[in-house]
# Entry
Amino acid sequence: MSTSARSRSRLRKHPSLSSDKYTYRYLYCTYCMFCTITILALQIQKCEALAKASLVRRIRSIIPPKFPFSLPWYEKGLEFSCTGCSKCCKVDGDVWLAPEEVTNIVNYLRNENDEDVTSIDTFRKKYVRAELSPEDGDPSQSWMCLKRNDGACTFLDPLGQCRIYDVRPVQCSTYPFWPSLLEDSEAWEEESVVPDDVAIENGTDDRHWSPEHGGCEGIGIGRIMDTVAELDEKDLKDVDLNILVQELQQEAIIVEREEILAKRKAAKRHWKRFPGQDIKMSTWYL
# Structure
Protein backbone atom coordinates (compact mmCIF):
# COMPACT_ATOMS: atom_id res chain seq x y z
CA MET A 1 0.00 0.00 0.00
CA SER A 2 1.33 3.41 -0.92
CA THR A 3 2.03 6.10 1.64
CA SER A 4 -0.85 8.26 0.43
CA ALA A 5 -3.23 5.32 0.60
CA ARG A 6 -2.18 4.52 4.17
CA SER A 7 -2.75 8.18 5.09
CA ARG A 8 -6.24 8.14 3.63
CA SER A 9 -6.94 4.87 5.45
CA ARG A 10 -5.96 6.40 8.80
CA LEU A 11 -8.17 9.39 8.16
CA ARG A 12 -11.15 7.16 7.50
CA LYS A 13 -10.48 5.18 10.68
CA HIS A 14 -10.03 8.29 12.86
CA PRO A 15 -12.72 10.91 12.09
CA SER A 16 -11.39 13.21 14.84
CA LEU A 17 -8.03 13.44 13.09
CA SER A 18 -9.74 14.38 9.85
CA SER A 19 -11.84 17.00 11.65
CA ASP A 20 -8.81 18.60 13.29
CA LYS A 21 -7.00 18.70 9.97
CA TYR A 22 -9.82 20.53 8.19
CA THR A 23 -10.31 22.87 11.14
CA TYR A 24 -6.65 23.82 10.93
CA ARG A 25 -6.96 24.40 7.18
CA TYR A 26 -10.03 26.54 7.68
CA LEU A 27 -8.32 28.68 10.32
CA TYR A 28 -5.20 29.02 8.21
CA CYS A 29 -7.17 30.08 5.13
CA THR A 30 -9.19 32.53 7.19
CA TYR A 31 -5.99 34.03 8.58
CA CYS A 32 -4.45 34.36 5.10
CA MET A 33 -7.61 35.98 3.76
CA PHE A 34 -7.65 38.44 6.65
CA CYS A 35 -3.99 39.38 6.11
CA THR A 36 -4.59 39.84 2.38
CA ILE A 37 -7.57 42.13 2.95
CA THR A 38 -5.60 44.14 5.52
CA ILE A 39 -2.64 44.61 3.17
CA LEU A 40 -4.97 45.67 0.38
CA ALA A 41 -6.64 48.10 2.73
CA LEU A 42 -3.29 49.67 3.54
CA GLN A 43 -2.55 50.06 -0.15
CA ILE A 44 -5.91 51.76 -0.61
CA GLN A 45 -4.91 54.25 2.09
CA LYS A 46 -2.22 55.61 -0.18
CA CYS A 47 -4.98 57.25 -2.17
CA GLU A 48 -6.29 60.26 -0.27
CA ALA A 49 -9.72 59.92 -1.76
CA LEU A 50 -10.09 56.39 -0.43
CA ALA A 51 -8.18 56.80 2.81
CA LYS A 52 -11.34 57.90 4.58
CA ALA A 53 -13.31 54.85 3.50
CA SER A 54 -15.12 53.41 6.50
CA LEU A 55 -14.31 49.87 5.35
CA VAL A 56 -10.59 50.49 5.80
CA ARG A 57 -11.12 51.78 9.31
CA ARG A 58 -13.39 48.89 10.24
CA ILE A 59 -10.91 46.30 9.01
CA ARG A 60 -8.00 47.83 10.92
CA SER A 61 -10.06 48.60 14.01
CA ILE A 62 -10.56 44.90 14.79
CA ILE A 63 -6.80 44.32 15.01
CA PRO A 64 -5.58 44.53 18.64
CA PRO A 65 -3.44 47.59 19.50
CA LYS A 66 0.33 47.34 18.83
CA PHE A 67 -0.21 44.49 16.34
CA PRO A 68 0.88 45.01 12.71
CA PHE A 69 -1.61 47.10 10.70
CA SER A 70 -3.60 48.08 13.79
CA LEU A 71 -4.89 51.63 14.06
CA PRO A 72 -2.74 54.05 16.08
CA TRP A 73 -4.04 54.80 19.55
CA TYR A 74 -4.44 58.45 18.47
CA GLU A 75 -6.73 57.53 15.57
CA LYS A 76 -9.30 60.14 16.61
CA GLY A 77 -6.71 62.89 17.02
CA LEU A 78 -5.07 64.46 20.06
CA GLU A 79 -5.79 67.52 22.14
CA PHE A 80 -3.01 70.03 21.58
CA SER A 81 -2.49 73.73 20.95
CA CYS A 82 0.80 75.57 21.35
CA THR A 83 0.56 78.12 24.17
CA GLY A 84 3.65 80.04 23.09
CA CYS A 85 5.26 79.53 26.50
CA SER A 86 8.66 78.80 24.84
CA LYS A 87 9.50 76.30 27.59
CA CYS A 88 10.36 73.65 25.02
CA CYS A 89 13.23 75.99 24.03
CA LYS A 90 14.58 75.91 27.59
CA VAL A 91 14.76 72.18 28.25
CA ASP A 92 18.13 70.70 29.16
CA GLY A 93 18.88 69.07 25.82
CA ASP A 94 20.46 69.44 22.41
CA VAL A 95 19.11 70.67 19.09
CA TRP A 96 20.90 69.10 16.13
CA LEU A 97 20.62 70.61 12.66
CA ALA A 98 20.80 68.55 9.49
CA PRO A 99 23.03 69.99 6.71
CA GLU A 100 20.12 71.39 4.73
CA GLU A 101 18.70 73.00 7.87
CA VAL A 102 22.00 74.78 8.45
CA THR A 103 21.87 76.16 4.91
CA ASN A 104 18.25 77.30 5.28
CA ILE A 105 18.93 79.06 8.58
CA VAL A 106 22.07 80.78 7.27
CA ASN A 107 20.15 82.09 4.25
CA TYR A 108 17.30 83.23 6.49
CA LEU A 109 19.65 85.11 8.83
CA ARG A 110 21.27 86.81 5.85
CA ASN A 111 17.87 88.03 4.68
CA GLU A 112 17.15 89.22 8.21
CA ASN A 113 20.36 91.26 8.10
CA ASP A 114 22.24 89.37 10.79
CA GLU A 115 25.58 91.09 10.24
CA ASP A 116 27.51 88.36 12.07
CA VAL A 117 26.37 85.64 9.66
CA THR A 118 27.72 85.85 6.15
CA SER A 119 28.50 82.17 5.59
CA ILE A 120 28.27 78.73 7.20
CA ASP A 121 31.67 79.35 8.78
CA THR A 122 30.52 82.52 10.53
CA PHE A 123 27.28 80.77 11.55
CA ARG A 124 29.37 77.96 13.03
CA LYS A 125 31.47 80.34 15.11
CA LYS A 126 28.50 82.27 16.52
CA TYR A 127 25.80 79.67 17.02
CA VAL A 128 27.31 76.15 17.02
CA ARG A 129 28.86 74.35 19.97
CA ALA A 130 29.38 70.86 18.50
CA GLU A 131 29.63 69.33 15.06
CA LEU A 132 29.54 65.87 13.47
CA SER A 133 31.25 65.65 10.10
CA PRO A 134 30.79 62.80 7.58
CA GLU A 135 33.52 60.25 7.01
CA ASP A 136 34.67 61.99 3.83
CA GLY A 137 35.20 65.18 5.83
CA ASP A 138 32.90 67.34 3.69
CA PRO A 139 32.04 70.27 6.02
CA SER A 140 28.95 71.13 3.99
CA GLN A 141 27.39 67.83 5.12
CA SER A 142 28.04 68.29 8.82
CA TRP A 143 25.35 68.10 11.49
CA MET A 144 25.60 70.99 13.94
CA CYS A 145 24.45 71.33 17.55
CA LEU A 146 23.20 74.76 18.59
CA LYS A 147 24.65 76.68 21.51
CA ARG A 148 22.61 77.54 24.58
CA ASN A 149 22.43 80.96 26.20
CA ASP A 150 21.42 81.20 29.85
CA GLY A 151 19.80 77.78 29.74
CA ALA A 152 17.82 78.41 26.55
CA CYS A 153 18.22 77.95 22.80
CA THR A 154 20.56 80.50 21.28
CA PHE A 155 17.75 81.68 18.97
CA LEU A 156 15.24 82.46 21.73
CA ASP A 157 14.95 86.23 22.03
CA PRO A 158 14.29 88.21 25.27
CA LEU A 159 10.54 88.21 24.54
CA GLY A 160 10.45 84.42 24.39
CA GLN A 161 10.08 84.31 20.61
CA CYS A 162 12.05 82.17 18.17
CA ARG A 163 14.21 84.30 15.89
CA ILE A 164 14.20 81.64 13.15
CA TYR A 165 10.63 80.40 13.58
CA ASP A 166 9.91 80.35 9.83
CA VAL A 167 12.84 77.95 9.26
CA ARG A 168 12.99 76.29 12.66
CA PRO A 169 14.51 72.78 12.75
CA VAL A 170 12.47 69.61 12.25
CA GLN A 171 13.19 68.72 15.86
CA CYS A 172 11.30 71.86 16.93
CA SER A 173 8.52 71.93 14.34
CA THR A 174 7.44 68.34 15.03
CA TYR A 175 7.34 68.56 18.84
CA PRO A 176 5.45 67.15 20.72
CA PHE A 177 4.56 64.64 18.01
CA TRP A 178 7.81 62.69 18.31
CA PRO A 179 7.78 58.89 17.97
CA SER A 180 8.95 58.49 21.57
CA LEU A 181 5.99 60.53 22.84
CA LEU A 182 3.47 58.77 20.59
CA GLU A 183 4.55 55.27 21.58
CA ASP A 184 1.42 54.97 23.69
CA SER A 185 -1.09 57.12 25.55
CA GLU A 186 0.92 56.84 28.77
CA ALA A 187 4.00 58.43 27.17
CA TRP A 188 1.85 61.24 25.75
CA GLU A 189 0.19 61.95 29.09
CA GLU A 190 3.52 61.92 30.91
CA GLU A 191 4.72 64.74 28.64
CA SER A 192 1.74 66.89 29.66
CA VAL A 193 2.37 69.54 32.31
CA VAL A 194 0.17 72.03 34.13
CA PRO A 195 0.81 75.78 33.63
CA ASP A 196 2.85 77.29 36.47
CA ASP A 197 -0.06 79.47 37.63
CA VAL A 198 -2.36 76.49 38.09
CA ALA A 199 -2.28 74.68 41.43
CA ILE A 200 -1.78 70.92 41.45
CA GLU A 201 -4.21 68.88 43.49
CA ASN A 202 -2.84 66.34 45.92
CA GLY A 203 -3.06 62.74 44.84
CA THR A 204 -2.82 63.46 41.11
CA ASP A 205 -0.04 62.71 38.63
CA ASP A 206 -0.01 66.31 37.36
CA ARG A 207 3.27 68.22 37.39
CA HIS A 208 4.75 71.56 36.44
CA TRP A 209 7.40 72.05 33.79
CA SER A 210 11.09 71.81 34.74
CA PRO A 211 14.30 72.11 32.67
CA GLU A 212 15.34 68.61 33.70
CA HIS A 213 12.12 66.79 32.81
CA GLY A 214 10.60 69.18 30.28
CA GLY A 215 6.98 68.77 29.35
CA CYS A 216 4.33 70.55 27.28
CA GLU A 217 1.48 72.54 28.77
CA GLY A 218 -0.24 72.64 25.39
CA ILE A 219 -1.12 68.95 25.59
CA GLY A 220 -4.77 68.63 26.53
CA ILE A 221 -5.19 72.19 27.82
CA GLY A 222 -3.65 74.20 25.03
CA ARG A 223 -6.22 77.01 25.07
CA ILE A 224 -5.64 78.08 28.66
CA MET A 225 -2.81 80.51 28.04
CA ASP A 226 -4.52 81.99 24.98
CA THR A 227 -7.65 82.66 27.01
CA VAL A 228 -5.75 84.12 29.97
CA ALA A 229 -3.79 86.37 27.63
CA GLU A 230 -7.05 87.93 26.42
CA LEU A 231 -8.08 88.90 29.95
CA ASP A 232 -7.03 92.23 31.39
CA GLU A 233 -5.61 92.51 34.92
CA LYS A 234 -8.97 93.41 36.43
CA ASP A 235 -10.72 90.37 34.96
CA LEU A 236 -7.80 88.12 35.78
CA LYS A 237 -8.18 88.83 39.49
CA ASP A 238 -11.71 87.47 39.39
CA VAL A 239 -10.79 84.26 37.52
CA ASP A 240 -10.31 80.93 39.25
CA LEU A 241 -7.62 79.34 37.10
CA ASN A 242 -8.43 75.85 38.34
CA ILE A 243 -12.01 76.20 37.11
CA LEU A 244 -10.75 77.74 33.87
CA VAL A 245 -8.57 74.67 33.28
CA GLN A 246 -11.53 72.35 33.67
CA GLU A 247 -13.67 74.40 31.29
CA LEU A 248 -11.01 74.63 28.60
CA GLN A 249 -10.24 70.93 28.80
CA GLN A 250 -13.73 70.36 27.47
CA GLU A 251 -13.06 72.66 24.49
CA ALA A 252 -9.50 71.62 23.63
CA ILE A 253 -8.31 71.89 20.02
CA ILE A 254 -8.00 68.52 18.29
CA VAL A 255 -5.02 67.86 16.01
CA GLU A 256 -6.11 65.41 13.33
CA ARG A 257 -4.50 62.02 12.79
CA GLU A 258 -3.09 62.99 9.38
CA GLU A 259 -1.11 65.89 10.81
CA ILE A 260 0.11 63.79 13.72
CA LEU A 261 1.33 61.03 11.41
CA ALA A 262 3.07 63.51 9.10
CA LYS A 263 5.00 65.12 11.95
CA ARG A 264 5.81 61.77 13.54
CA LYS A 265 7.18 60.51 10.22
CA ALA A 266 9.28 63.65 9.70
CA ALA A 267 10.76 63.42 13.20
CA LYS A 268 11.52 59.72 12.83
CA ARG A 269 13.21 60.23 9.46
CA HIS A 270 15.24 63.13 10.86
CA TRP A 271 16.39 61.08 13.86
CA LYS A 272 17.32 58.03 11.78
CA ARG A 273 19.48 60.17 9.49
CA PHE A 274 21.53 61.50 12.38
CA PRO A 275 25.02 59.91 12.17
CA GLY A 276 25.90 59.94 15.88
CA GLN A 277 24.74 56.51 17.00
CA ASP A 278 26.15 56.84 20.53
CA ILE A 279 24.46 60.21 20.96
CA LYS A 280 21.15 58.86 19.68
CA MET A 281 21.24 56.05 22.18
CA SER A 282 22.13 58.23 25.16
CA THR A 283 21.36 61.95 25.10
CA TRP A 284 19.35 62.76 21.96
CA TYR A 285 16.14 61.11 20.86
CA LEU A 286 12.89 62.09 19.20
Observations:
- The mean pLDDT is 80.
